[in-house]
Amino acid sequence: MGWLFMRDLGGHATSRSYLDNQFTYQRDTHRLTVLASAMVGSTYYAACERLADDVERIVFGIVCLTKTSTGARDGCTFGYKDMDETVGPNESECPAAILDELTATDSKYALAWRARCRANLLAKKLDRAKPTPKPGQIIIFDEPMRF
């Protein structure tokens, strides 16, 4: 499980559009389509639909770590390491819109990853709901603070 590096994005304007293109293809026996994707920092998340003649439709999560470098000696400017949700990626900031697209799975690693992503989304939502003091605002505590 290594990294793929390349000299350019093959005519694509962004790493997201490049990866969307890489994970959308048609073969004789099956087809893979990116339904939704997002970059969160340098991590790419996608919901990919797999349609095949012999199995029912599945939508699974893809996670790619990405690196961009403009001064590499070998001329490679973009690299990525791809994995799907069944390997239990450590990165777990997947947006809700992508998680909502995924079909049911019995993979314990995928289920744990989805749960971590949902927990992180909830934690961010709760953090945003906390009031933020403004400059000059006076805050009164119920109990005195000791220093």
What does this structure look like?
There is one protein chain. This protein has three helices and six strands, in the order βαβββββαα. The chain is of the alpha+beta class and 147 residues long. It has one domain (4-120). The chain has a six-stranded antiparallel sheet with strand order 1-6-5-4-3-2. The model has no long low-confidence stretch (mean pLDDT 92).
Number of folding domains?
A: 1
Number of helices: 3
For the largest sheet, list the strands in their spatial order. 1-6-5-4-3-2
Describe the largest sheet. Answer: 6 strands, antiparallel
Overall geometry: extended
H and E order: EHEEEEEHH
Strand content: 25-35%
Distance between the termini: 51 Å
Query: Which range best describes the helical content: under 10%, 10-25%, 25-40%, 40-55%, 55-70% or over 70%?
Result: 10-25%
Structural class assignment: alpha+beta
Number of strands: 6
Average pLDDT figure? 92
Round the Cα radius of gyration to an integer and report it: 20 Å
- Low-confidence region ranges: none
